[in-house]
Amino acid sequence: MKKIQYLAAGVLSTAVLFADAVEGLAQRRVNTHFLPYSSISFGVGSSHYYGDLAGYRQFIKATYIMPRWNVGIGYTRQFTPKFAARATFTWARISGDDYTFNKNNIQENLPQYVRNLHFRNDLKEFAITGIYNLVPDGRTSEERAKLTPYLFGGIALVAHSPEARTPYVEGSDDSQRWVKLQPLHTEGQGQPGYEKPYSLVTLAVPVGIGVRYKLNESFNLAFELGYRYTFTDYLDDVGGNYAAANVLTGLAATMADRRVEVNAARLKSHPDRYQALVNLYQSATPEEQAKIGNELQGNVVRGADGKLNDGYLLTSFQIHYIIPSKIKCPPIR
Questions:
Q1: What pLDDT is recorded for position 167?
Q2: Which stretch is the leader sequence (predicted)?
Q3: How many CB atoms lie within 10 A of CB 257?
Q4: Taking 60 as the threshold, does the pLDDT of residue 332 lie above it?
Q5: pLDDT reading at 66 higher than 90
Q6: Strand pairing partners for 314?
Q7: Residue 262: phi, psi to the nearest 5?
Q8: At 289, phi and psi to the nearest 5?
Q9: With bands split at pLDDT 50, 70 and 90, how would you rate the model's confidence at 14?
């Protein structure tokens, strides 16, 4: 936690220094009459995951299934009436579950339902973004627009570590315990013939829209909607094929392949997951039965969704505090 706090402080400090350096250039070249100002912000909102367990092909469904939370702080420097730069730190949780996402349409989403994987991931995002106001500010912070829609985009560094629950075993102390997945190398990563382990730090591209309302001279209220496309396919620990049976052992093997578990892997109260497959098998044609059998044992594909990288969407309700400008005292005569 201390490392995260130090890194957040470093990012915000760098942004302040960058803002001071750019401010002079903005004043000379863009608008010599505008008085730049700064603000700090705090926001809370929802987080929405898109990836192998909640595919882009069902974007709307993925948006409202299993939303989670985010909180964030930021520092913004308004250089001109239309342009600002911002540094933010956001802590966001995302989550996905094959059972929850596909339980109402098993036949159409059979591979994902059978796969029975799930995850949660706490993302720590450090972002530098540019903001473009569609309605320009006035000459000073007090004269800023009453209602300002804006666009933003930039680059972010994201630290993450996906987790999942161990299988439910009645009476076991190890039952339904959250464990980190990357050290288990669930797709054989690091073994001969397999890819190297994926990184727990990745880049992301945040883009989005927002609207800001001037509450009074010192405060704004704002709402933002921003999407992050990441440079990893492993926010959910799922991206490739199942490892061969002799590659993984112990807990790694248990967490890597959960197709034959009776319970929904994340929810111990849903043993009907497997019974639904049994019912589907019994009423199926021989060809359909062969397909179900292949998904349970023969299919080697673990990831899905066309090798697209994972992404997430953040909403944020924010309050901004406008830092007062320095007051210059008149010279003493």
A1: 94
A2: 1-21
A3: 19
A4: no
A5: yes
A6: 47, 226
A7: -70, -45
A8: -65, -40
A9: very low
Round to whole Å and give the CA distance between 173 and 327: 63
Tell me how crowded residue 250 is: count the other CB atoms within 10 A of its CB: 8
Where exactly are the structural domains of the chain? 2-323
Lowest mean pLDDT among 8-22, 35-49, 302-316: 8-22
Measured between alpha carbons, how far is 53 from 32 in angstroms, rounded to an integer? 52
What is the pTM (predicted TM-score) of this model?
0.86
Query: Two tokens at 198?
Result: 């994926």
Query: In degrees rounded to 5, what are phi and psi of residue 67?
Result: -65, 150
Cα(180)–Cα(161) distance, rounded to whole angstroms? 7
Instruction: Report the distance separating Cα 18 and Cα 130, nearest Å.
Output: 13
Cα 176-181-186 angle, rounded to 5 deg:
110
Between β-strands 178-180 and 311-323, what pairing exists: parallel, antiparallel or unpaired? unpaired
- 2-323 maps to CATH 3.40.50.1450: no
Virtual CA dihedral for 238, 226, 103, 277, nearest 10 degrees?
A: -20
Q: Beta strands of 51-198 (E only): which ranges? A: 68-78, 83-97, 118-133, 147-159, 163-165, 178-180
* Pick from 8-17, 98-107, 142-151: least confident: 8-17
Residue with token string 């001071």: 20
Of 294, 307, 184, the residue nearest 249 (C-alpha): 184
Inter-CA distances, 98 with 11, 148, 235, Å: 36, 40, 15
Q: pLDDT tier at 42 (50, 70, 90 boundaries)?
A: very high
List pLDDT tens digits, range 172-208. 888 899 999 999 999 999 999 999 999 999 999 999 9
Rounded CA-CA distance 119/186 in Å is: 13
